[in-house]
Amino acid sequence: MSEKLAMIVESGTTDKLMAASILTAGAAAMGKNVTVFLTFGGLMAFKKGYEQAPMVLPNEFKGMEEILSQTMQAKKIPHWMKNFQDAKEIGNVHFYACSATMDLFDLKKDDLEPIVEDVVGVAYFMKETEGAQTLFI
Question: Which residues form a coiled coil (predicted)?
Answer without folding.
Answer: none
